[in-house]
Amino acid sequence: MGAATQVLLVGLLLLAAGLPAQAARVDASEHQAFWLWAGVTPQPVLAQARTLYVLQGQIDGPRRAGNPSARMQAQNPATPRLSKEVELWVVYRAHTLDWNDEVFALLLSQLQRWQRSGNRVSGVQIDFDAQTLRLDRYAAFLEDLRQRLPRQYRLSITGLLDWAGNADPAALNRLAGVVDEVVMQTYQGRHSIAGYQRYLPSIARLQLPFRIGLIQNGEWQAPDYLQSSPWFRGYVVFLLNPSEPATDTPAARR
């Protein structure tokens, strides 16, 4: 091998070493925590689940102007009995924070119903797309909810990538004193968020327990530094029906 060829090969190897690793597709069979949403058919992979986030209801705003009452729409009326080994989070998708006493009471009764059915209910998760600049209002809502929840139930929330990069640190610290975990979503709708990697360093610096939410078959490349965070608790995979392939989308929600 000539000297010129050797130099060329060394250059190519150095170039390859500097390239980022190719992102893989999220294989649900490699994980043990899942979101099970309304309309999604249970998959065999659920047999290996150790943590399940099951959508129970959706809280919508008033149907018409002048009616201030929020309402809850059932999303998963059945209450199956899961294995005692499965940690269950009952999830509520919220489109408003203006809850009335009836909504709070219904949420508590549903938690107790899951518990009476023999399930290992860890707590409730709120899935609300709080705007980054309005996190203080969201924190106030969560503080109120925390006070209403019986002590045996923990409180989880989903989080947007934009929180990590652009939120007021004081607002995030306020959440840390209220919620037991935040699951940061790296997807929007049924799609991985393009450029999610630039938010990960900020997420790794969070000072509250967090997980990373992935979309089944979506894109994900785990950075080495994520595992070194003492607050990192692993991944949650949002399951899709086979007819709903995940793709990439332009940017994170704000």
Automatic annotation (TrEMBL):
Chain ranges passing through the membrane: none
Signal sequence, renumbered to the chain: 1-23
Keywords, sorted A to Z: Signal
Protein name: DUF3142 domain-containing protein
Protein's organism: Ectopseudomonas guguanensis
Lineage: Bacteria, Pseudomonadati, Pseudomonadota, Gammaproteobacteria, Pseudomonadales
